[in-house]
Design brief:
Elements lengths: L2 H14 L6 H14 L6 E5 L5 H6 L6 E6 L2 H9 L5 E5 L13 E6 L9 H11 E12 L1 H6 L8 E4 L5 E4 L8 E4 L5 E4 L4 H9 L3 E8 L11 H9 L3 E8 L1
Parallel strand pairs: 1-2, 1-4, 2-3, 4-5
Antiparallel strand pairs: 5-11, 6-7, 8-9, 10-11
Length: about 250
């Protein structure tokens, strides 16, 4: 059982609670949907589909087919229960070889999932393989600035001088090994805080070209849920988006 299996119901209820600010619903989800762009008539692969929230919203554009998978069987169960048109979901692992044939998809996207992988080079290779020529790979991940500032001193980045003049440095931007990060009431999970260089050059080294990038801000309407969190995430970037294209 994955960590998300035990958290699935809580995760879903948080997203549906319209009385509170939600980092996914009010920042990442609408931004990624807009960033992916037109999907009408397209074949799509969703890496780390969760309970199918992104697929549900994209389905309004009438894509040809969407296939999604997630390591959490409980989240996949929720996704299939939604009966999203032209969609199917299965339990799968992003760290493994994708079971799909070469050049199968027009679009591959991933929402806040690649930072759980210890080897994103393998993922980029697999995504390139299953994408058609000119196909697009979009993904979101935690913003390095937010990850390295909004944590404890053990993991955040910074420095200070003692009264004796000795400099103390804490945190390490270049440390990409799995580290425990807080997900609020969801608890702590190990993620890899990849550098900009790794996220971009891994794509370039695997036959992609970077065609777009975005630092995400919360929706204007989310201010009514929590003005303080809205102000925080409007000044301190929480998530980033990348869009690559196969050559």
């Amino acid at each position: 059982m994955t960590k998300y299996d035990s958290l699935a119901k809580h995760y879903l209820s948080r997203r549906q609670d319209k009385t509170r600010f939600d980092y996914n619903r009010d920042i990442e989800v609408p931004a990624l949907i807009k960033f992916i762009g037109d999907v009408k008539g397209k074949t799509i692969l969703d890496l780390g589909c969760g309970f199918g929230d992104h697929a549900q919203k994209l389905s309004k554009q009438k894509y040809k087919q969407l296939i999604g998978f997630d390591i959490s069987k409980e989240l996949v169960k929720f996704a299939n229960e939604q009966k999203i048109p032209n969609s199917e979901f299965y339990v799968g692992d992003m760290s493994k070889k994708l079971k799909h044939k070469d050049s199968s998809f027009d679009i591959v996207y991933s929402s806040l999932a690649i930072h759980y992988l210890k080897n994103i080079d393998k993922l980029y290779k697999e995504v390139n393989r299953v994408l058609k020529k000119g196909g697009v790979f979009c993904f979101s991940t935690g913003h390095p600035i937010f990850n390295l500032i909004n944590q404890t001193k053990k993991s955040m980045i910074g420095s200070e001088k003692t009264k004796s003049g000795k400099r103390i440095i804490y945190g390490n931007y270049f440390n990409e090994k799995p580290q425990l990060n807080s997900l609020g009431s969801l608890g702590k999970l190990k993620i890899c805080n990849y550098t900009y260089e790794t996220l971009i050059k891994t794509g370039l080294n695997n036959g992609f070209e970077l065609i777009d990038y975005k630092d995400i801000k919360p929706t204007a309407s989310s201010k009514k849920y929590d003005a303080d969190k809205h102000r925080l995430t409007s000044t301190l970037p929480t998530f980033i988006l990348f869009k690559f294209q196969t050559k």
